[in-house]
Amino acid sequence: xxxxxxxxxxxxxxxxxxxxxxxxxxxxxxxxxxxxxxxxxxxxxxxxxxxxxxxxxxxxxxxxxxxxxxxxxxxxxxxxxxxxxxxxxxxxxxxxxxxxxxxxxxxxxxxxxxxxxxxxxxxxxxxxxxxxxxxxxxxxxxxxxxxxxxxxxxxxxxxxxxxxxxxxxxxxxxxxxxxxxxxxxxxxxxxxxxxxxxxxxxxxxxxxxxxxxxxxxxxxxxxxxxxxxxxxxxxxxxxxxxxxxxxxxxxxxxxxxxxxxxxxxxxxxxxxxxxxxxxxxxxxxxxxxxxxxxxxxxxxxxxxxxxxxxxxxxxxxxxxxxxxxxxxxxxxxxx
Length: 335
What we know:
Blueprint: H1 14-17, H2 24-42, H3 46-74, H4 76-84, H5 93-101, H6 103-106, H7 111-138, H8 152-155, H9 160-164, H10 172-201, H11 217-230, H12 235-261, H13 272-288, H14 294-327
């Protein structure tokens, strides 16, 4: 039997190498699928791409779920360590957020199935959010453990309203208001703390620099949640939209620098959903402002269409590098 040495370490199995943060790919792919649906409303031939992405995203989620279940069964200690690590614990919210977003795709096939998945996502999102609030309060932390991923568990509740438009219920409005309120309440102090850590205490580790784009998501998703709840463009909702775009433009140079300087890591998938959420919020603003501000709406549509096509190239690169990493057994750790 061939022995491994330090220069030739044993390669981990595919199951053991799958990090929880890889579910961020489902979030990004879902956002891209929804963006292509908007494109299909303008140019019908994009409808086939949207349908293909719909199927591919559901396939990716099923495969990742199966692999992750196997990981908890056969590599329990490694999975448990990932959950207990303050730097990666928050990324478990990518699973619950995926369950909140997937109904927007599943509804193409079964409204009932979409509803049950959404309900599971709502329950698990609230339970995990409550658990994380307890964990933050109960456990002593140091500033260097604070990363942009901390916004995911509680602010993830902002993803509840968008899919609620698919269903009918007397109390959906109350649920949406509650989710929007609590998500925004925690977003503000968490983002303030993260900026304080970066500016005054210590920069993020280089591998975590791409996750700064996560700070775009609370405002873009909050806008989408607000639009889904009230179905109108108000000064408050436009402010949420504008803040998200401004943060993205402010962080874009750091993102471009980090991705040029660093080798590929699974954590790069963290950039996908915030960008997708911002693009979908841009489509929504363009639609809701078309009657009163047609020139602005038309210009925003053009910019967003170009953004979606560029974002598609980013997603293709992430898919290629992730597939290569899995095949070559390079995904030894999340970051």
